[in-house]
Amino acid sequence: MSAPRWRDGWWGGARRVDSPNVGPRPPQVEPSLLVLHSISLPPGQYGGDAIERLFTNRLDCDAHPYFDTLRGLQVSAHFLLRRDGELLQFVSTRERAWHAGRSSWRGRDNCNDWSIGIELEGLEGECFETYQYSVLSTLIRTLARHHPIGDVVGHEHVAPGRKADPGVGFDWARLHASLAGCRAQVAPEILGQA
């Protein structure tokens, strides 16, 4: 008998790496928003374990000059999607990850309380890999079966002026097409800008 694919907010399709940067969601709050991010550490360099170390508070901030700017930072996302399609999960979707910071969507503040954060390995302004779109579509469909997800947005949309990821290199129309028939959809405001 195979292990369940979904248990207590953890998806069996992802490699589990527990982050300490997590908290409870407010009572009676289900995640209904997906926030997409982009990250590479150091910026523009892919592979390695620096992102995983950042989300688990194990990053050696002396290992690279850029890492010094991250000293003391405590952040997490629910998922990290690497450029080769590998998927990692750091936080149960039942809990609050620390990914959006000061944020608001359609007048509702504190997006961390009611969203799921997905980091894509990449750099804002650069293109993303075909594998990432394929895995992302599968992940979003899975999340929508377990949570009342409606809108899919970028960090740049919930924290405009403060954040710019995933950026112009992300193909929102491509993602939208891959989600045909799914309850979770790219927010119409974003498609109008793409």
UniProtKB/TrEMBL annotation:
Reactions catalysed, as given in the entry: Hydrolyzes the link between N-acetylmuramoyl residues and L-amino acid residues in certain cell-wall glycopeptides
Enzyme Commission code(s) on record: 3.5.1.28
PANTHER family hit by this protein: 1,6-ANHYDRO-N-ACETYLMURAMYL-L-ALANINE AMIDASE AMPD, N-ACETYLMURAMOYL-L-ALANINE AMIDASE AMID
GO cellular component: cytoplasm
UniProt-recorded name of the protein: 1,6-anhydro-N-acetylmuramyl-L-alanine amidase AmpD
Domain N-acetylmuramoyl-L-alanine amidase span(s) in chain numbering: 19-167
Keyword Oxidoreductase carried by entry: no
Organism in which the protein naturally occurs: Ideonella aquatica
Necessary cofactors: Zn(2+)
BP terms from Gene Ontology: cell wall organization; peptidoglycan catabolic process; peptidoglycan turnover
Domain of life: Bacteria
Keyword Zinc: yes
Gene Ontology molecular function terms on file: metal ion binding; N-acetylmuramoyl-L-alanine amidase activity
Phylogenetic placement of the source organism: Bacteria, Pseudomonadati, Pseudomonadota, Betaproteobacteria, Burkholderiales
Compartments in which it is found: Cytoplasm
Keywords assigned by UniProt, alphabetized: Cell wall biogenesis/degradation, Cytoplasm, Hydrolase, Metal-binding, Zinc
Family as reported in the entry's similarity comment: Belongs to the N-acetylmuramoyl-L-alanine amidase 2 family.
Enzyme class: hydrolase
InterPro entries in the record: Amidase/PGRP_sf, Amidase_domain, NAMLAA_amidase_2
Pfam families in the record: Amidase_2
